[in-house]
Records
---
Amino acid sequence: MANRVRVGIAGTGSYLPERVVPNSEFEKTLDTSDEWIVQRTGIRERRFAAPDQATSDLSVIAAERALKQAGIAASELDLIVVGTLTPDFLLPSTACLIQDRLGAKNAAAFDCNAACTGFITALHTGEAFVAAGRAKRVLVIGAETLSRFVDMHDRTSCILFGDGAGATVLMPWEDCKQGEILDTRMGADGSGYEFIHMRGGGSRLPATAQTVAAGEHAIRLKGREVFRFAVTYMSDLIADLTKGYPKEELGLIVPHQVNRRIIDAALERLGMDDSKVIVNIQHYANTSAATVPIALDEAIHAGRLEKGKLCVLVAFGAGLTWGGTLLRW
Ligand code: UT7
């Protein structure tokens, strides 16, 4: 595109709530075991938000850290985009609550719901605004309090999820000279909408005493179907985004933390080992839209992203949706 502004990631930040919930807590109430959960998912523990913490509370802390690292004030932001499937309220958006709490008085704000692809979708939205010259400072957040939306009696889903938030600040690459977004991919296949869904509480099935009693407000998933889709899309997106680049230029892959076995199967399909992949699912489980920005922030702080190397972000989830980003750090 002519006159496209080059876009970079100027700062990142993340926040995990303090309460650590080990697998052993589920053994007390469910027919499950630490051994099953570790073997089938790689998860050992996750974080759950405190009763007075909602998605915007986790987001504000992550955002303040990202703004600090980017060296800008909240008042300099033009736009806030939040990827979440667990907003504080159905109305208004969580982005508006964050805008108020940060004092980002010059920023427009909205949420986007692409489930586990939420952060990548928000990132590509923010990137498009900066690339088109419509915004200069964009805060992009992926944040969830999934512990509020799982059925703690359903062993096939409740053990999988955790709470957390990650944030990034986008600006013209000329202003930050790091993390240039080179390429993006996004897609959807709504025919798979029933694979992961929450039936109750929307216009199709408004909340009633019956929907609550029937557990319609919790996340339900067809794990095996998602597993197959996830392995295929994770490996295809990585291969597609890195095509044409020499192998040694790839510095890091930041995959959606959905299941250790899914990550391993995707790497096997690509003929790669895990030396260039960040995995933290053992500590935080699946935090949906927050997994990628949390892992990216951790990788940067751990010094795993070398300047000049390529970095691939990749996620997929309910919808079905998928997305990938190629960065040069
Ligand atoms: O980000 C998108 C959202 N995430 C997902 O959609 C998750 C993707 N899928 C997965 O990660 C895996 O499919 C799971 C971890 C959900 C399940 O692993 P699996 O290897 O696909 O197991 P399965 O569903 O084939 O179940 C195997 C057995 C079943 O028992 P039977 O039918 O063989 O007797 C399940 O009932 O394991 C049983 N099972 C459990 N056992 C102990 C299911 N959950 C549990 C549990 N503890 N928590």
---
Amino acid sequence: MTVQFWKKENWSRLGVSLKVLLALLFLMIGLVPMGFLGLMMNRGYRRTQIDGRVIEVQNQSLITSDRLTRADYMGAARGDALVGRELDTVADIFNGRIVVVDRNFRIIKDTFNLSEGKINVSEPVLKCFQGEHGILREEQKQYFAVTAPIYDSTPERNIVGVLLIIASTENILSNVSSVMESTRFFILIAFLLLALIGTLLASLIVKPFDRLQVALDRMADGNLEENISENTYRETMAISEAVQTAKTKLQTVDQSREDFVANVSHELKTPITSIRVLADSLMSMEEVPVELYKEFMSDISEEIDRESKIVDDLLSLVKMDKSSAELNIAQVDINALVQQILKRLTPIAQKRNVELIYESIREVVADADETKLSLAVSNLVENAIKYNMENGWVRVTLDADHKYFYIRVADSGIGIPEDKQDSVFERFYRVDKARSRETGGTGLGLAITKNVVLMHYGSIRLMSKEGEGSVFTVRIPLTYIY
Ligand code: ADP
């Protein structure tokens, strides 16, 4: 399979390496200010070098123009060869060009001997004749020009000429670029060092996460015994704790599944064992009277009924364990539903001499799965009859407010000890195993009821006192919210 790297989803699947990200961050933090500083220093260096040269040339221009004024170069000593040579020397020293322009803008001296006799009406020259001498910088062309006035020898000191010095900045710029070169080299070394240190630091920082990952991988391989505790950072500590909690839950689920399977096998085996004992004893006897046969066969039939009830209950429970989408919600007349249950259970109650009382406080129509709710309420009423006293009573009350309806099943029965009250909703849990068996209980009734109530987003509460009776209260929302 080829991975198409340019696709965004492929990148997000590959993820971004925290290590690489950190290393890059260190590099950026180190390099950006360094590069910026280098750039600023280079600029400053270049500027001071050029400014220094300008000042130097400017001073020289003033000294030279003064010398020309004193020599009366524009008057009596015009074109004097000696002064001319002096100018050549100065120009050489400054690695520049000296041009002298007279009042008529004619060039009378050019140390480059290129434009003598020509006219120069350039802006600096014009300005200098007007008394504004200064500098003209042409950084792009790598030179600058400085002007200085030459006066006559009269006391009025009229400007009779202009001294123009054109100096090159080429040397300075090549100096600056060699400095720049060493700065670049320095930055390269710094880059390599920073990359190395950044990678080492990033590895060090990410190490606890790596260790965590190794531990998680081991856990994924099925090693659930090992404890995960990576406490270097608060974050790794939080992850470790979360994983530990998830692991404990997983182990609990695992354990309860094992327990459930063990319980199911045990419960299913009990009637089978009885059937086998009954059948074996019948077979071992010779000339068994028909009455005994009938009695044993009826016992076997009872055990088969029991087995079948356990299987039915288990199937109901398994169905209930699936999502609430399995619910078949419709508008149900809860009064009618409860009345029907009570009618169906009246014969059992009469058999045990238990009085069934129904109290309907108001008419209730609610969203519910009729079959499942009916099963849940039946279990409660059946239990109230089963775990009752001789001549006892069971009172079923139906009430509602604007949000919920309540079904209360109270009995005058044997009650449930306080420390067992939470456990009775567990699968196969029975307070008194012998009594439950006697009454045909499977230990699954309350687990089924609780599941049904939870599927309807309701709740179930139990209040009971040993020897006095129990009250189960179911509360379910009138409207089912999908
Ligand atoms: P069973 O099939 O044994 O009745 P249930 O899940 O319905 O299973 O109930 C679990 C246990 O809770 C019962 O075995 C019984 O000990 C206790 N129990 C349930 N309802 C009552 C009640 N109304 N009064 C006293 N004990 C009860």
---
Amino acid sequence: MAFETIIVEVEDYVAVIRLNRPEALNALNDKLLTELATAITAAQANDKVRVLVLTGSDKAFAAGADIKMMREKSFTDVYLEDLFTPETDQITRGRKPIIAAVAGYALGGGCELAMMCDFIIAADTAKFGQPEINLGVMAGLGGTQRLTRFVGKSKAMDMNLTGRFMDAEEAERAGLVSRVVPAKDLMKETMAAAHKIAEKSMITTMAIKESVNRAYETTLHEGLLFERRVFHALFATEDQKEGMSAFLEKRTPQFRDR
Ligand code: CAA
């Protein structure tokens, strides 16, 4: 598939999707979001893909929704077209894990796009922020909701109300990113994580993604029950027999997604 604003490569069961609008620091316009949603949907359906990686450039993961695109829009326009909803629904619908590899700016919709992924690995150059308040608007892709779940109320209020940026070290301390690596190692470390996940049984990776996400949607009691039942269900798979047998026989498991 030929795209203009993203680059997609599939290698060793990992699809790497790179945002590629350098002239606008990967700002999210209609075209980019549509192409991204299409590429993610295709990768989710591709048997040769087990894990997805979403990344940008050294300077910017994405500097937010495209301000040029939004400036002239009215309430009626954005409400009737339900701005950003169809694409983000598509981006977050898939069951295979998505890792965000973030270097440079991840601001506004860029920070929110990273948070739509399953976890974030940050370069030490990464800067996260919800600066929409400076534009006379507010976050619209999860900056008041997902960010609050990641970092708690106080920091989410601070980020959204002051518009200040958070560096990678603070983002790791706050729980927004899973780890920080030197910028030059960002893709090496991310690909190593992606390949490690790709080796596992895909039934298990999907079950884990579904279960962790359930923690955000339900009570502890219901979440624990859901987890227990999914754990029980995995005993119906051949991969459970293979994984446990391989451990006891001191060999590498050969998972077959069955
Ligand atoms: N939309 C459109 N274009 C953008 C952009 C954006 N969000 N961010 C950067 N650009 C463009 C700039 O206009 C500039 O283009 P020109 O060369 O044609 O002037 C180019 O990218 C390079 O940007 P700068 O010259 O500003 O680069 P810098 O290094 O001086 O600053 C920056 C970098 C701090 C990221 C600065 O560009 C910036 O503050 N960008 C806007 C960040 C922002 O406000 N994001 C939130 C957007 S709203 C949103 O996302 C809503 C939502 O939640 C859905």
